[in-house]
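Q: Hi! First time doing this. I have a protein sequence and I read that you can turn it into a structure. Is that right? Here it is:
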Amino acid sequence: MPRHENRKRLFLFTALGLELFVIGIFAVNITVHTWTRQYRYDDASQAPAAQVVLIPGAAILLNGGLSPIFRDRADAAIGLYEAKKVSKILVSGDNSTLSHNEVNPVRNYLLGKGVPDQDIFLDHAGFDTYSSMYRARDIFGVTSVLITTQSFHLPRAVFIARRLGIEAYGVNADKGTILFKNYVREVFAQEKAVLDLIVQRKPKYLGEQIPITGDGRLYP
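A: Yes, that's right. Below is the predicted 3D structure, encoded as structure tokens:
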């Protein structure tokens, strides 16, 4: 076969592969957004009651305070707690090293806002959204949850939780400006979420059960 024919065939196969890749990404994102739409709320007052509200991890400032995104998630959770939509708050984040702790600063913030210590639970090994939802189910025994996070993250969080068997609903925590790069990142994060669900990935850490119905002061 002539060399130019081989090049033409390689080009066609490459083009077809890229086209299928783009279509796959588009299909996954459309599916996640469409399938979770009925479980997401912009108006917190419309959200149903649940066992617990889950605050997914986000960045902590150099001074130990919450980043704006993290604070908005925490404030939305406090609103749901005060409205008696939930009786417990679960803070999930990355506490993989002594110098990186996403959960204790939120606990301190919640306490400062008047949330009783016994109703605050911390998941120190919520290294990503999938791990947070998996551990909420298997470690904390969560069967129903309200998730407070921003609009770019909400579909993926609700999708993962529901595919793991949790009765999950999302409450939009948008307040400040959301950067475009956050939405771009989600395009590929949703692909990874679907892959994690397909292969049934286990989180890095599981451990002993911590019943969400108990007293959070027993599990610092």
